[in-house]
Write a structure and sequence with these properties.
This protein is mostly helical and 195 residues long. It contains seven helices and no strands.
């Protein structure tokens, strides 16, 4: 029932504002992505609150969202698999890796520089269902992702071995690794075509 009302509402928006089919497809994708992310973040916030790591989780989510919105990465087909993947990603970057895999401070600038370079060369990797972006928009996404990684890397190096620096470091590393995995998984594929 709610789906019917939503479709009617979107049709009304399209006719009122004279949106093209491509613009409507982008709007529908955005609404679906935002609602999914809100639910996922709420569920994970409750879990990390129970684990006693809510502040660290919130910092991690902020860093990840700002990078991922511009660089893209692996995208799961279903909400549950996306939730599980994000849970594992956040557990690793917020709790497990900072606690059990210390990276010596002198190695961090080199690793962060590799992540920045890899992101510059690989980003963005959008979801297959996301309507294709124009080449200029793709360059803007790539450049924003690269600048954000640079700024976060500077913050990591200034904060040295504090918990926030560790979380930020591991989010950058894991996000870059999954971006590279997404590139490998998408070899030869294109975004969904608009008819």
């Amino acid at each position: 029932m709610a789906v019917i009302h939503t479709e009617q509402f979107l049709e009304q928006i399209q006719s009122s504002y004279h949106f093209t089919d491509l613009e409507m497809k982008r709007l529908k994708y955005t609404l679906k992505a935002v609602s999914s992310e809100l639910v996922k973040t709420l569920v994970l916030s409750v879990l990390f609150f129970k684990l006693g790591h809510l502040p660290e989780f919130i910092i991690g989510v902020f860093i990840l969202i700002t990078i991922r919105c511009n660089s893209g990465g692996l995208h799961m087909e279903h909400f549950v698999t996306c939730l599980l993947f994000t849970l594992i990603f956040m557990l690793l970057s917020v709790i497990l890796l900072p606690a059990f895999v210390p990276v010596p401070y002198p190695a961090r600038p080199f690793l962060l520089a590799l992540c920045i370079l890899a992101t510059f060369l690989a980003a963005p990797v959008p979801a297959k269902k996301r309507p294709p972006a124009e080449p200029e928009a793709r360059r803007r996404y790539r450049n924003r992702a690269t600048v954000l990684l640079f700024l976060y890397s500077v913050a990591v190096l200034i904060l040295k071995t504090t918990p926030i620096a560790d979380i930020c470091f591991w989010i950058i590393v894991l996000q870059t690794l999954q971006l590279l995995c997404a590139i490998a998984a998408r070899k030869g594929e294109n975004n969904e075509k608009i008819q």
